[in-house]
């Protein structure tokens, strides 16, 4: 008897926990589901469910994750990461929001968690990327400088380039001239950034038509014994090095 009472008590506790994990509010015909999924800021991910009619439903985060990234000055990075996460999750990212359309009633629970997890996953990837990457202004200056140094070449900003493994790597700039390419990518002295850059450069270097790889750093001295790790598969140049240094590492233009 005591065991039955204990189990009944635990069942009530479990029900109370479950009811507190997610909340729902109905506003102007839309259901706002506050999920237990947390963003790095500590706020919960909210998924909005709308009735499309015909037994179909439209789910979206209404751009909540993108808005948080925008407040932190990371909207552009969030956008790129969201597109990748959306492809992996089997949902869409449009208008700055994750969207799952035409969901059936039986798909609502799984769909809600899929959208919420996509938002959280993108936010985490954005923060990790921010720790590894420079500010957008630094990339803008690099692209502008490359355009000035190589006026007859095509300079592309933030390109996804597949390595020998077929994994798509994002690089800050690609300069193409006379059928040859040079990849420029910022690398910080953070060990995570170094490891990520090393994997990226080695994978790109393994291509049959591998482009020249150039790691752009703040100061070589700041890398200590991590500098050779970067230099194994890329040339290294300081961001404020003279023009001739950038021309030389690009390799396909005579210094």
Segments where pLDDT lies below 50 for 5+ residues?
A: none
Please give the share of residues in helix: 40-55%
Rough shape?
A: elongated
N-to-C SSE string, H for helix and E for strand: HEEEEHHEEHHEEEHEHEH
Query: In DSSP terms, counting alpha (H) and pi (I) runs of 4 or more, how many helices?
Result: 8
The number of strands is 11
Gyration radius, in Å: 24 Å
Strand order of the largest sheet: 1-2-3-4-6-5
- Quaternary assembly: single chain
Q: Taking all residues together, what is the mean pLDDT?
A: 86
How would you briefly describe this protein structure?
The protein has 255 residues and is α+β, with helices and mostly antiparallel strands. The chain has helices at 2-21, 64-71, 75-89, 108-132, 136-149, 191-205, 227-231, 243-250, and strands at residues 23-27, 30-38, 44-53, 56-60, 92-94, 97-103, 154-162, 168-177, 180-186, 212-217, 235-238.
Notes on the structure:
It contains 8 helices and 11 strands. By secondary structure, it is of the alpha+beta class. It is elongated. The model has no long low-confidence stretch (mean pLDDT 86).
Task: Offer a few descriptive terms.
single chain; 255 residues; alpha+beta; 6-stranded antiparallel sheet; 5-stranded mixed sheet
Present the secondary structure layout:
Layout: H1 2-21, E1 23-27, E2 30-38, E3 44-53, E4 56-60, H2 64-71, H3 75-89, E5 92-94, E6 97-103, H4 108-132, H5 136-149, E7 154-162, E8 168-177, E9 180-186, H6 191-205, E10 212-217, H7 227-231, E11 235-238, H8 243-250
């Amino acid at each position: 008897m005591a065991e039955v009472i204990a189990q009944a008590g635990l069942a009530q506790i479990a029900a109370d926990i479950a009811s507190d994990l997610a909340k729902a509010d109905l506003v102007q015909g839309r259901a706002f589901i506050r999920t237990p999924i947390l963003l790095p800021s500590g706020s919960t991910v909210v998924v909005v469910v709308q009735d499309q009619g015909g037994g179909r439903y439209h789910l979206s985060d209404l751009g909540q994750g993108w808005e948080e990234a925008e407040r932190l000055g990371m909207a552009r990075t969030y956008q790129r990461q969201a597109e990748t996460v959306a492809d992996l999750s089997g949902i869409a990212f449009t208008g700055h929001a994750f969207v799952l359309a035409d969901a059936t009633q039986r798909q609502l629970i799984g769909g809600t968690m899929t959208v919420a997890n996509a938002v959280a996953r993108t936010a985490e990837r954005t923060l990790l990327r921010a720790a590894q990457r420079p500010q957008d202004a630094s990339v803008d200056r690099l692209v502008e400088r490359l355009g000035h140094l190589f006026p007859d070449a095509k300079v592309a900003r933030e390109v996804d380039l597949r390595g020998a493994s077929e994994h798509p790597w994002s690089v800050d700039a690609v300069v193409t001239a006379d059928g040859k390419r040079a990849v420029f990518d910022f690398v910080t002295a953070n060990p995570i950034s170094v490891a990520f850059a090393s994997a990226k450069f080695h994978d790109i270097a393994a291509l049959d038509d591998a482009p020249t790889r150039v790691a752009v750093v703040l100061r070589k001295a700041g890398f200590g014994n991590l500098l050779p790790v970067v230099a194994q598969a890329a040339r290294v140049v300081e961001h404020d090095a003279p023009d001739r240094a950038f021309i030389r590492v690009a390799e396909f233009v005579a210094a």
